[in-house]
Specification:
single chain, about 190 residues, alpha/beta, Rossmann fold, 5-stranded parallel beta sheet, 5 strands, globular
């Protein structure tokens, strides 16, 4: 029996736990995990950012190029029965970032897979606490707790239109339970 093929797109603020939840989810779906830093670090590893100083716009242009290559590879060369779990920080009002959602959804459609976005919602104070964790710096991730707090208080995680998006409050939810909730959502919304 053929299992459903999904492109689950976990969206949330930097530091909210996207990767940790994705690591719990991917094995349950027999999915390949495509964390945003899997793509970003191809470029970021070359410039060694400090996690606090904003990056030059050209850095993001190059990261978009790497993402395009990754999506083209998935579309044309990945096994047809393979599911994927993607992670990204995509906030409302960022057209180029929003385009990333659209690009992933288009590849899912081209492969006959179901695209399901998941928005992680978290209390600003908890986000600031998580962003400040020491292991984030070694992974070339943002570590500015004050900036994370400001962002969480003034911005919203993007909701991709025309998809059955799950809003998941994770402030007090373990990664295991978050992954379980996502699997239940996928089952409830199967076409």
């Amino acid at each position: 029996m053929r299992h459903p093929v999904y492109f689950v797109h976990i969206l949330g603020f930097a530091g909210s736990g996207k990767l940790t939840i994705a690591k719990e989810l991917a094995p349950q779906l027999r999915a390949v995990l495509v964390d945003n830093h899997f793509i970003n670090n191809v470029v970021l590893g070359l410039i060694e950012p400090d996690g606090v100083t904003p990056l030059a716009s050209g850095v993001w242009v190059n990261i978009r190029k790497v993402r395009a290559i990754a999506l083209e590879t998935i579309q044309h060369y990945a096994r047809p029965d393979r599911s994927f779990v993607f992670t990204n920080e995509i906030l409302e009002g960022e057209p180029l970032a929003e385009q990333a959602c659209s690009d992933i959804a288009k590849v899912a459609e081209a492969r006959g897979a179901t695209y399901r976005p998941v928005r992680l919602l978290i209390a600003p104070e908890e986000l600031a606490r998580r962003v400040a964790s020491p292991e984030r710096a070694s992974q070339l991730k943002e570590i500015d707790a004050e900036a994370a707090l400001r962002k969480a208080r003034t911005r919203r995680v993007y909701t991709p239109p025309n998809h059955k998006c799950l809003d998941l409050e994770i402030t007090n939810l373990s990664p295991t339970h978050a992954a379980e909730n996502i699997v239940l959502h996928l089952r409830r919304t199967e076409a």
